[in-house]
Specification:
The chain is an alpha+beta fold. It folds into 2 domains: 9-282, no CATH class; 298-584, no CATH class. The protein contains 13 helices and 25 strands. It has helices at residues 29-45, 47-50, 108-113, 122-133, 142-145, 151-158, 161-166, 225-231, 298-320, 332-341, 358-361, 406-409, 411-420; strands spanning 9-12, 15-18, 56-57, 61-64, 72-77, 82-83, 86-89, 115-116, 138-140, 170-173, 234-238, 243-247, 250-253, 349-350, 353-354, 364-366, 395-397, 424-429, 447-461, 491-495, 506-510, 525-535, 545-553, 558-567, 578-584. Strand 4 (61-64) and strand 5 (72-77) form a beta hairpin. Helix 8 (225-231) packs parallel to helix 10. It starts with 8 loop residues before the first strand and ends with a strand.
């Protein structure tokens, strides 16, 4: 809110306080002064949450920033050098970046010899200008610091994103720029409200959406920037309307003089309660993680690991709603985040899922329409069928709500199911496309072996009957076109025999648009269903459910094609489910 004398009024909940005037252009010195103040305050007063400014091992390559724009900037290989640097998070745009700008095997020599910043796209020029004004000598920009036509170098550097963004003193986020030519800076609204005398009343008027506008910015549509934003200990955002500062303690806006911490603050989720970014991979993973009495609190450890896996799934949920220009970037665009998130208790990283509680993590399903702009959904191999990466669309999870996890909140009931019908992971074999990035793209043929209780399931369709059960999702299913609930309307599910006219009150959802599952006036199709979880549902006291994977047969194994849920009371005794070993591709 503004008055025409420049006084900024803040209205936040029931609190109204003086704010800060917003200047007309984000390149104004006042904006840089605010950014400098935020940086100083964060590094001085936020303690270990945000990490103090300190020398760190530098990334493989950095751009060395000259003292003035008239001097040459040059690409530098750092070796074992330590120091401080900033990183840029930006959109490449639909047309990408031209070859002369990018560092390639052909242009690397020229880049290291030196070139003028004025030869770069506007967003890169602006980032260099910001870094220089804030007193930094080095900046990391992906298009220039990775050899773009060297696949080994690219995959090796992609696997280092945890260190690149996690160790950066500051990340500059070009939120409003659609591509590298747009530039980081821009004009802002100059509309002001009438100002009355000091003894009169103020007319208050909101000037925009504030922090909430970040979700509509071009940068928030890009898949790669999920890990860039999560990993960065502190970020300066250049939004359309104003500047914003994001760090582990909260959000600061240009229009406010105090901290605003939105519910579900993005950068706090996965790493909440952890110490410095550089220590994150080791937090809670060794004998030092004990209480003062020398004994581990196993429940606390279970809660912490469960929370981290749930937070990881929430990251994937956010990532799945974004776009990737190159479909094969699915795993690489998250490998740095996976490296930073892992702890000993989480076990192996298995094609996007963690060994700890892996079967609850398999209870993902497509959320809404089965297409995403920017991701090609064709027959090309995306990843193992049981991994969320195979969906290629926005996804959600049945299990592991923030307020509910069957392992913890129904411990006694869950233990009984776990002893009788729960699946077991026997082994897994994941082939990375490149050894330089073990958490990156995986090759066709990767699989896991599991042991679980199965039975034959027959799925057909009906125009009149909806078999969607209550209690499995936060949103109830309906047949209305506006309903985003993805459970297949009108699906008939039968167990054990196609002649069995007993239609099970269960539900079924397809994983993708090209998995071959019949869904409209077609003959009934047979699948194998294996139990992977048991839960009470969001209401806890109502609608207990069994969750199972629907598997289609392959030559020497199975592939996942969907998810099914059944009311617990009608699933029959354990004798109705047969134990078998399954190989899932």
């Amino acid at each position: 809110m503004k008055c025409n004398d420049g006084t900024q009024i803040r209205e936040y909940g029931d609190e109204i306080s003086l704010g800060r005037p917003i200047v007309d252009n984000s390149k104004d010195d006042e904006c840089l002064n605010i950014a400098s103040m935020w940086l100083a305050r964060c590094t001085k007063y936020h303690g270990t949450k945000c990490r103090k400014l300190q020398n760190v091992k530098l990334p493989t390559r950095l751009l060395q920033i000259p003292r003035s724009n008239a001097e040459s900037i040059r690409l530098k290989e750092t070796g074992e050098q330590t120091g401080q640097y900033v990183a840029l998070s930006h959109c490449w745009g639909e047309n990408g970046i031209d070859d002369q700008t990018k560092t390639t095997s052909e242009t690397m020599g020229d880049k290291m010899h030196g070139f003028l910043a004025s030869s770069l796209p506007q967003s890169f020029q602006d980032a260099i200008y910001i870094a220089r004004r804030l007193g930094f000598e080095y900046i990391w920009i992906d298009a220039l610091c990775i050899i773009q036509d060297d696949l080994d170098d690219w995959s090796r550097e992609a696997s280092q994103m945890a260190e690149v963004y996690g160790n950066a003193s500051l990340t500059i986020s070009a939120d409003r720029a659609r591509d590298s030519k747009d530039g980081i800076f821009g004009q802002r609204s100059t509309h002001r409200s009438p100002c009355f005398d000091q003894h009169g009343e103020w007319f208050l008027q909101k000037i925009g959406g504030g922090w909430a506008t970040i979700d509509s910015m071009p940068l928030s549509q890009r898949g790669w920037t999920v890990q860039e934003r999560f990993l960065s200990p502190r970020t300066i955002h250049y939004l359309e309307e104003q500047l914003a500062w994001e760090c582990r303690t909260g959000i600061y806006l240009e229009e406010h003089r105090s901290c605003v911490v939105p519910t579900g603050h993005f950068s706090q989720g996965l790493f909440q309660g952890q110490t410095e970014q550089s220590d994150m991979r080791h937090a809670g993973s060794g004998p030092e993680n004990v209480h003062r009495n020398g004994k581990k609190d196993l429940r606390d450890e279970l809660m912490n690991t469960t929370f981290r896996v749930h937070s990881w799934n929430e990251c994937i949920r956010e990532w799945s709603m974004r776009c990737l220009t190159v479909p094969s970037d699915r795993f690489p665009s998250l490998s740095g985040l996976a490296t930073a998130a892992e702890t000993h208790q989480m076990g192996d990283y298995i094609a996007g899922l963690w060994e700890y509680d892996i079967f609850n993590s398999m209870s993902w399903f497509p959320d809404g329409q089965l297409t995403v702009e920017g991701i090609t959904l064709k027959s090309t191999y995306k990843g193992p069928s049981w991994s969320w990466v195979s969906a290629g669309c926005p996804i959600y999870w049945c299990c592991g709500f923030p307020s509910y996890n069957p392992v913890i909140h129904e411990a006694e009931i869950y233990k009984k199911w776990d002893k009788t019908l729960a699946p077991r992971l026997l082994r897994h074999h994941i082939d990375p496309s490149r050894l330089t990035d073990p958490k990156g793209e995986v090759l066709k043929g990767s699989y896991l072996m599991m042991q679980g209780y199965t039975r034959e399931i027959y799925v057909g369709s009906s125009r009149t009957i909806s078999s969607c059960p209550k209690g499995i999702s936060r949103r109830e299913c309906c047949n209305e076109p506006s309903c985003r609930q993805p459970w297949e309307p009108g699906t008939l599910v039968r167990m054990d025999s196609i002649a069995n006219k007993w239609n099970v009150p269960g539900s079924f959802t397809r994983d993708s648009i090209d998995n071959g599952v019949e869904n409209a006036d077609s003959k009934i199709k047979s699948f194998v269903c294996v139990q992977i979880s048991r839960q009470m549902g969001p209401d806890k006291c109502e609608h207990p459910k069994i969750i199972g994977l629907l598997l289609d047969r392959m030559d020497d194994g199975f592939k996942r094609v969907g998810l099914a849920t059944f009311d617990l009371s009608i699933c029959g005794p354990s004798d109705d489910w047969k134990l078998r070993d399954l190989k899932l591709y």
